[in-house]
Every structure is written in C-alpha cells, then in structure tokens.
Design a protein that fits this description.
The structure holds 2 protein chains of 2 kinds.
Chain A: H1 4-26, H2 30-49, H3 54-82, H4 96-99, H5 101-115, H6 117-135, H7 141-164, H8 169-191
Chain B: H1 2-20, H2 27-33, H3 35-47, H4 51-75
Helix pairs in contact in B: 1-2, 1-3, 3-4
Chain lengths: ~200, ~80
C-alpha cells in the first residue's frame, strides 16, 4: 500500500482534483457544473480506492449511494429552477426498445432472484428500470411502497431470528436476502418512472 | 496488478483533462467524456480486487447517466 505506486497514484488523484475544481470555478453554466461535480465525485472515489483494503470497499459503497441520491436531488432542483417540466424532443423510436424489454427483463429478474440480497435487488431493479423506460408504465406507487414496507419488516424480523433463535440462521438469511431483494428492486424500479408518464 | 493500475491512472489523468477542458463545450460531449475517468477508476478498483465496489459503481454509473440524460432531454442542447 505504501509503495512508490501509491504515492504516484495519490499525486495523480490530487492533481485531478485541483484541475476539476478549477474547471468548476471557471464554469458559469449550471448544468456544466453538475457534470463537473460528477467528475469530482469520481476523483474522490479514486482517493478512497487507493486505500486498497476492505475499509476502502466499506467506504466506497455509502459514498456511491450518497453520490447518486445527491445527483438526483440536484438535477431535480435544477429542473424546477429552470422550469423544465416536459421533454423538448419527441421520444426516440428505436426498434430494439420495442422487442427486447420483455425477454431481457425476464432474464435480469430471474438472475436477480437467484443472486438475492442487495446485489440481486440491484440486478432485478435494473431489469425493471429498463422495462419501464422502454414500455412506459402505469403502476400505482402505493403498491410499490407497501411491498417495500413489508420487505423492511421482514428484514427486521430476520434479524430478530438471528438474535433469538440462532439455530434457524439459514431461514433468517433467506428471509433477509429475499426481503432486501424486494426492497432494492422496488426502489430502483421507481427510477424507471422518472421519465414521466400517466402518473406525472 | 501494476499494468492495470498504471493504465487506470493514465485513463484517469486523460479523462480529467478531457472533461475539464473539452474541445467543444456541449453537454453531450462532456457526458460521454465522463466515461473515461470512470473507466480509469474501474481499472484501479480492479487492480486492488475491490469487487463489490466495482460492481456497485457500474450500476450507479448507469443510473447517473440516466438521470443526467433526463435533464439533458428537457434542457435541450446548448
């Protein structure tokens, strides 16, 4: 970890951070600034990744989650501030986006259920996002929220099983994994509705 | 490990310059150029065996691109 390579990496990362913030300082357009903020986030993650232990992974994961939610919030604020509520262009008609979603989503969701847990939820959620982006959507948000709430309760129940009856650990692991899958997939599928539809 | 690390660092440096000082200042150019430093970061993570961080970064980058594209299609090209 403390070799000449690590020092060189630190130097490159710090030089990159200086360049990125100089560019943000020079920039006057707000959306360009948002894009440059994304660059600054990548450079901050490089700095953490250079730690090169399990600690780095433990620090990068919350950093990524906070980064994406911050990006969503900032872009939403930007849209409201500029008064941009409708897309300026008609939606693209790409042939693949009509034929592929069903089979691709099926494969992704099936693989996500096999993986289970956080990673499985992310994989299944990507499938749902893709489907909703391509086919449009008319789901009721209350149902997704309810499923998410039950999943959270199941997750907590699984932790109680771990503490009270540790001999049923396999059941608890499966419950927690399934609940987390449902929760992450449900939340991620909400992202797929961001393009706007009958609910907006 | 060294080859991946050095390649990642080189991509990172090139990408930072490409995003910070693009030749034509358009949103789409900058958005696409952002993939270069991101790929550098992926190679650095790969060289240190940070698997979960790498996979999550890929997923989060896909969503981030989607969020930024959504702003772009409402903002219009400038």
């Amino acid at each position: 970890m403390t070799g000449p390579l690590y020092i060189a990496g630190l130097a490159v990362a710090f030089a990159g951070i200086l360049v990125a913030f100089y560019a943000i300082m020079r920039e006057s357009d707000d959306f360009h600034r948002i894009l440059l903020t994304d660059l600054a986030e990548i450079l901050a993650l490089v700095l953490i990744a250079l730690v090169a232990t399990d600690l780095a992974e433990a620090l990068i994961l919350p950093g990524l989650v906070v980064g994406i939610s911050e990006l969503m919030a900032v872009s939403e604020v930007y849209l409201v501030k500029e008064g941009l509520f409708r897309p300026q262009y008609p939606p693209l008609s790409i042939e693949v986006m009509d034929t592929a979603p069903a089979i691709l989503t099926l494969a992704l969701v099936a693989y996500g259920i096999v993986l289970s847990g956080f990673t499985g939820g992310a994989v299944a959620g990507v499938g749902a996002v893709f489907y909703m982006m391509c086919r449009g959507h008319d789901e009721r948000f209350a149902v997704i929220e309810a499923a998410s709430g039950y999943a959270w309760a199941l997750w907590i129940a699984a932790f109680f099983i771990f503490m009270v009856a540790p001999q049923y650990w396999l059941f608890a692991v499966m419950t927690a994994g399934g609940a987390l899958l449902l929760k992450v997939a449900g939340k991620m599928s909400l992202v797929g509705t961001m393009r706007g539809g009958s609910n907006e | 490990m060294n080859a991946e690390f050095l390649l990642g660092m080189a991509l990172l440096a090139i990408g930072v310059v490409a995003v910070a000082f693009p030749r034509d200042r358009r949103y789409l150019t900058r958005l696409i150029s952002l993939e270069i430093p991101a790929f550098g970061l992926l190679l650095i993570m790969l060289s240190y065996d940070e698997t979960i961080a790498l996979l999550t970064f890929i997923a989060v980058t896909a969503i981030a691109t989607f969020v930024l594209t959504r702003v772009l299609e409402r903002r219009g090209e400038a």
